[in-house]
Amino acid sequence: MTHTQLTAPNRALAAPNGVTYAYRRFGDAGASAPPVLFLQHLRGNLDNWDPALVDAVAAEREVVLLDNAGVGGSTGAVPTTVHEMAVGALAFADAAGLGTYDLFGFSLGGFVAQEIALLRSHQVRRIVLAGTAPQGGRGFHRFTGTVLEAVMTDQPTAEEFLTLFYTDSEESRTRGMESLGRVFTRQEDRDEPTDLATREAQMLAISGWGVPDLTRLGRLAAITQPVLVANGDHDVMTPTENSYLLAGHLPDATLRIYPDAGHGFLNQYPAEFAHEVNRFLG
Protein backbone atom coordinates (compact mmCIF):
# COMPACT_ATOMS: atom_id res chain seq x y z
CA MET A 1 0.00 0.00 0.00
CA THR A 2 1.28 3.44 -0.92
CA HIS A 3 0.71 5.78 2.02
CA THR A 4 0.06 9.51 1.97
CA GLN A 5 -0.10 12.19 4.64
CA LEU A 6 -3.73 11.19 5.22
CA THR A 7 -3.05 7.45 5.61
CA ALA A 8 0.53 7.05 6.86
CA PRO A 9 0.51 5.55 10.36
CA ASN A 10 1.89 7.37 13.35
CA ARG A 11 5.07 5.58 14.38
CA ALA A 12 7.10 5.67 17.58
CA LEU A 13 10.87 5.36 17.88
CA ALA A 14 12.75 5.16 21.17
CA ALA A 15 16.12 6.94 20.98
CA PRO A 16 19.10 6.50 23.34
CA ASN A 17 18.45 9.98 24.80
CA GLY A 18 15.33 8.61 26.50
CA VAL A 19 12.84 10.28 24.17
CA THR A 20 10.31 8.27 22.18
CA TYR A 21 9.73 10.22 18.97
CA ALA A 22 6.45 10.30 17.06
CA TYR A 23 6.92 10.40 13.30
CA ARG A 24 5.49 9.44 9.92
CA ARG A 25 7.62 7.94 7.17
CA PHE A 26 6.24 7.38 3.69
CA GLY A 27 6.84 8.05 0.02
CA ASP A 28 9.07 6.53 -2.63
CA ALA A 29 11.59 4.59 -0.55
CA GLY A 30 13.07 3.14 -3.72
CA ALA A 31 14.16 6.51 -5.08
CA SER A 32 17.89 7.09 -5.45
CA ALA A 33 17.60 10.40 -3.60
CA PRO A 34 18.00 10.41 0.20
CA PRO A 35 14.98 10.89 2.47
CA VAL A 36 13.81 14.37 3.44
CA LEU A 37 13.45 15.14 7.15
CA PHE A 38 10.63 17.67 7.72
CA LEU A 39 10.92 19.98 10.75
CA GLN A 40 7.77 21.80 11.84
CA HIS A 41 6.75 25.32 12.91
CA LEU A 42 5.79 26.78 16.30
CA ARG A 43 2.97 24.76 17.94
CA GLY A 44 2.76 22.47 14.91
CA ASN A 45 2.61 18.67 14.92
CA LEU A 46 2.57 15.91 12.29
CA ASP A 47 -0.92 16.85 11.15
CA ASN A 48 -0.03 20.47 10.38
CA TRP A 49 1.83 19.57 7.19
CA ASP A 50 -0.38 20.27 4.17
CA PRO A 51 -1.02 16.99 2.30
CA ALA A 52 -0.92 18.82 -1.04
CA LEU A 53 2.70 19.76 -0.35
CA VAL A 54 4.20 16.72 1.38
CA ASP A 55 2.44 14.16 -0.83
CA ALA A 56 3.84 15.85 -3.95
CA VAL A 57 7.36 15.64 -2.48
CA ALA A 58 6.75 12.05 -1.33
CA ALA A 59 5.85 11.07 -4.89
CA GLU A 60 9.53 11.43 -5.80
CA ARG A 61 11.35 10.42 -2.58
CA GLU A 62 10.82 9.25 0.96
CA VAL A 63 9.70 11.85 3.49
CA VAL A 64 10.04 11.72 7.29
CA LEU A 65 7.79 14.02 9.33
CA LEU A 66 9.03 14.49 12.91
CA ASP A 67 7.58 15.58 16.23
CA ASN A 68 10.64 16.76 18.11
CA ALA A 69 11.00 16.06 21.83
CA GLY A 70 7.90 16.95 23.83
CA VAL A 71 5.88 17.92 20.76
CA GLY A 72 2.62 16.16 19.87
CA GLY A 73 2.97 12.43 20.40
CA SER A 74 6.68 12.55 21.33
CA THR A 75 7.73 12.10 24.95
CA GLY A 76 10.11 14.24 26.95
CA ALA A 77 10.27 17.99 27.53
CA VAL A 78 10.37 20.57 24.77
CA PRO A 79 13.83 22.20 24.74
CA THR A 80 14.03 25.95 25.26
CA THR A 81 16.90 26.52 22.81
CA VAL A 82 17.26 25.85 19.11
CA HIS A 83 20.58 24.12 19.74
CA GLU A 84 18.95 21.56 22.05
CA MET A 85 16.16 21.03 19.52
CA ALA A 86 18.77 20.27 16.87
CA VAL A 87 20.53 17.80 19.16
CA GLY A 88 17.19 16.08 19.76
CA ALA A 89 16.43 15.86 16.04
CA LEU A 90 19.87 14.34 15.48
CA ALA A 91 19.16 11.73 18.16
CA PHE A 92 16.05 10.76 16.20
CA ALA A 93 17.91 10.71 12.86
CA ASP A 94 20.58 8.42 14.32
CA ALA A 95 18.01 6.08 15.87
CA ALA A 96 16.08 5.98 12.59
CA GLY A 97 19.21 5.03 10.67
CA LEU A 98 19.23 8.15 8.54
CA GLY A 99 22.76 8.32 7.17
CA THR A 100 22.58 10.99 4.50
CA TYR A 101 19.43 13.07 4.25
CA ASP A 102 17.96 16.35 3.05
CA LEU A 103 16.33 18.84 5.41
CA PHE A 104 13.07 20.76 5.03
CA GLY A 105 12.71 23.31 7.82
CA PHE A 106 9.64 25.53 8.11
CA SER A 107 9.72 28.57 10.44
CA LEU A 108 11.08 27.33 13.81
CA GLY A 109 11.93 24.12 11.97
CA GLY A 110 14.12 26.22 9.70
CA PHE A 111 16.08 27.47 12.70
CA VAL A 112 16.61 23.85 13.74
CA ALA A 113 17.61 22.83 10.20
CA GLN A 114 20.34 25.47 10.13
CA GLU A 115 21.69 24.26 13.46
CA ILE A 116 21.66 20.62 12.31
CA ALA A 117 23.60 21.60 9.20
CA LEU A 118 26.20 23.28 11.39
CA LEU A 119 26.43 20.39 13.86
CA ARG A 120 26.35 17.46 11.44
CA SER A 121 27.31 18.91 8.08
CA HIS A 122 28.69 15.66 6.65
CA GLN A 123 25.24 14.00 6.75
CA VAL A 124 23.15 16.80 5.27
CA ARG A 125 23.05 16.90 1.48
CA ARG A 126 20.63 19.74 0.62
CA ILE A 127 18.40 22.08 2.65
CA VAL A 128 15.05 23.80 2.13
CA LEU A 129 14.46 26.80 4.42
CA ALA A 130 10.85 27.98 4.24
CA GLY A 131 9.50 31.05 6.02
CA THR A 132 12.42 31.20 8.40
CA ALA A 133 15.30 33.38 9.55
CA PRO A 134 18.97 33.29 10.53
CA GLN A 135 20.08 33.54 14.13
CA GLY A 136 20.30 37.20 15.11
CA GLY A 137 18.03 38.27 12.24
CA ARG A 138 15.51 41.07 12.15
CA GLY A 139 11.99 41.64 13.38
CA PHE A 140 11.02 38.41 15.16
CA HIS A 141 12.65 38.64 18.59
CA ARG A 142 9.50 40.21 20.02
CA PHE A 143 6.07 39.65 18.51
CA THR A 144 3.62 42.53 18.99
CA GLY A 145 0.02 43.52 18.33
CA THR A 146 -2.27 41.12 16.48
CA VAL A 147 0.63 38.75 15.74
CA LEU A 148 1.38 38.33 19.45
CA GLU A 149 -2.32 37.89 20.25
CA ALA A 150 -2.69 35.18 17.59
CA VAL A 151 0.49 33.36 18.61
CA MET A 152 -0.44 33.33 22.30
CA THR A 153 -4.10 32.31 21.92
CA ASP A 154 -4.63 29.20 24.03
CA GLN A 155 -6.94 27.54 21.48
CA PRO A 156 -6.21 28.99 18.03
CA THR A 157 -9.06 29.16 15.54
CA ALA A 158 -9.00 29.53 11.77
CA GLU A 159 -8.90 33.30 12.20
CA GLU A 160 -5.63 33.22 14.15
CA PHE A 161 -4.18 30.85 11.57
CA LEU A 162 -5.14 33.20 8.73
CA THR A 163 -3.71 36.21 10.60
CA LEU A 164 -0.33 34.57 11.11
CA PHE A 165 0.09 32.70 7.83
CA TYR A 166 -1.66 34.70 5.10
CA THR A 167 -2.10 38.24 3.82
CA ASP A 168 -5.28 40.28 4.08
CA SER A 169 -6.21 39.69 0.44
CA GLU A 170 -9.28 37.64 -0.38
CA GLU A 171 -7.21 35.33 -2.58
CA SER A 172 -4.63 34.58 0.10
CA ARG A 173 -7.25 33.97 2.81
CA THR A 174 -9.27 31.72 0.49
CA ARG A 175 -6.17 29.61 -0.19
CA GLY A 176 -5.54 29.51 3.53
CA MET A 177 -9.01 28.11 4.23
CA GLU A 178 -8.49 25.52 1.49
CA SER A 179 -5.24 24.45 3.15
CA LEU A 180 -6.97 24.16 6.54
CA GLY A 181 -9.55 21.92 4.92
CA ARG A 182 -6.81 19.63 3.61
CA VAL A 183 -4.98 19.59 6.96
CA PHE A 184 -8.14 18.52 8.82
CA THR A 185 -9.25 15.93 6.27
CA ARG A 186 -7.55 13.21 8.29
CA GLN A 187 -9.89 12.18 11.10
CA GLU A 188 -8.48 8.85 12.28
CA ASP A 189 -5.11 8.27 13.95
CA ARG A 190 -4.36 11.97 14.22
CA ASP A 191 -1.32 13.15 16.13
CA GLU A 192 -1.60 14.37 19.71
CA PRO A 193 -2.26 18.13 19.80
CA THR A 194 0.49 20.39 21.10
CA ASP A 195 -0.05 21.85 24.56
CA LEU A 196 0.63 25.20 26.19
CA ALA A 197 3.91 23.98 27.68
CA THR A 198 5.10 23.36 24.12
CA ARG A 199 4.13 26.90 23.16
CA GLU A 200 5.99 28.41 26.10
CA ALA A 201 9.19 26.42 25.54
CA GLN A 202 9.22 27.06 21.82
CA MET A 203 8.62 30.77 22.34
CA LEU A 204 11.70 30.88 24.57
CA ALA A 205 13.73 29.20 21.84
CA ILE A 206 12.45 31.62 19.20
CA SER A 207 13.20 34.64 21.38
CA GLY A 208 16.72 33.43 22.06
CA TRP A 209 17.40 32.77 18.38
CA GLY A 210 15.90 36.13 17.42
CA VAL A 211 17.92 38.45 19.64
CA PRO A 212 19.15 41.00 17.06
CA ASP A 213 22.83 40.41 16.41
CA LEU A 214 23.97 40.60 12.80
CA THR A 215 27.41 39.30 13.77
CA ARG A 216 25.74 35.87 14.03
CA LEU A 217 25.21 35.91 10.26
CA GLY A 218 28.84 34.87 9.88
CA ARG A 219 27.87 31.36 11.02
CA LEU A 220 26.00 30.86 7.75
CA ALA A 221 29.30 30.70 5.85
CA ALA A 222 29.79 27.23 7.34
CA ILE A 223 26.62 25.90 5.68
CA THR A 224 28.11 25.07 2.31
CA GLN A 225 25.35 22.74 1.06
CA PRO A 226 22.98 24.01 -1.63
CA VAL A 227 20.05 25.74 0.10
CA LEU A 228 16.64 26.74 -1.25
CA VAL A 229 15.39 29.78 0.67
CA ALA A 230 11.72 30.62 0.14
CA ASN A 231 9.04 32.82 1.65
CA GLY A 232 5.99 34.91 0.93
CA ASP A 233 6.46 38.59 0.19
CA HIS A 234 4.58 39.62 3.36
CA ASP A 235 5.62 37.35 6.23
CA VAL A 236 4.55 38.90 9.56
CA MET A 237 6.09 36.17 11.75
CA THR A 238 9.63 35.90 10.37
CA PRO A 239 9.70 39.02 8.20
CA THR A 240 10.64 38.39 4.58
CA GLU A 241 13.76 40.53 4.98
CA ASN A 242 15.26 37.55 6.80
CA SER A 243 15.00 35.39 3.70
CA TYR A 244 17.13 37.94 1.87
CA LEU A 245 19.62 37.86 4.75
CA LEU A 246 19.83 34.07 4.50
CA ALA A 247 20.25 34.09 0.74
CA GLY A 248 22.87 36.82 0.95
CA HIS A 249 25.05 35.06 3.52
CA LEU A 250 24.72 31.37 2.61
CA PRO A 251 27.48 30.40 0.16
CA ASP A 252 25.18 28.45 -2.18
CA ALA A 253 21.61 29.73 -1.91
CA THR A 254 18.67 30.01 -4.28
CA LEU A 255 15.95 32.49 -3.29
CA ARG A 256 12.24 32.30 -4.19
CA ILE A 257 9.68 34.86 -3.00
CA TYR A 258 5.98 34.18 -3.64
CA PRO A 259 3.59 37.08 -4.34
CA ASP A 260 0.64 38.10 -2.16
CA ALA A 261 1.68 35.50 0.40
CA GLY A 262 2.76 35.38 4.00
CA HIS A 263 4.33 32.89 6.39
CA GLY A 264 2.15 30.11 4.96
CA PHE A 265 3.17 30.62 1.34
CA LEU A 266 4.02 26.90 1.08
CA ASN A 267 0.38 26.03 1.85
CA GLN A 268 -0.95 28.81 -0.37
CA TYR A 269 1.15 27.59 -3.31
CA PRO A 270 1.56 23.87 -2.48
CA ALA A 271 1.80 22.53 -6.03
CA GLU A 272 4.15 25.27 -7.19
CA PHE A 273 6.40 25.03 -4.16
CA ALA A 274 6.48 21.22 -4.21
CA HIS A 275 7.59 21.41 -7.85
CA GLU A 276 10.31 23.88 -6.85
CA VAL A 277 11.43 21.64 -3.96
CA ASN A 278 11.52 18.51 -6.09
CA ARG A 279 13.49 20.27 -8.80
CA PHE A 280 15.92 21.66 -6.24
CA LEU A 281 16.44 18.40 -4.38
CA GLY A 282 16.71 16.65 -7.72
CATH superfamily: Alpha/Beta hydrolase fold, catalytic domain
In the CATH hierarchy, the third-tier topology is known as Rossmann fold
- The structural domain count equals 1
Low-confidence stretches: none
Using only C-alpha atoms, the radius of gyration works out to: 17 Å
* Rounded average pLDDT: 97
- The shape is globular
Tally the beta strands: 8
Look at the helices and sheets and give the structural class: alpha/beta
Percent in helix: 25-40%
Give the CATH architecture. 3-Layer(aba) Sandwich
Biggest sheet layout: 8 strands, mixed
| Helix-strand pattern | EEEHEHEHEHHHHEHEHH
Q: Counting H and I runs of at least 4 residues, what is the number of helices?
A: 10
> Taking strands numbered 1, 2, ... along the chain, how are they ordered across the largest sheet?
1-2-4-3-5-6-7-8
Oligomer classification: single chain
Distance between the termini: 25 Å
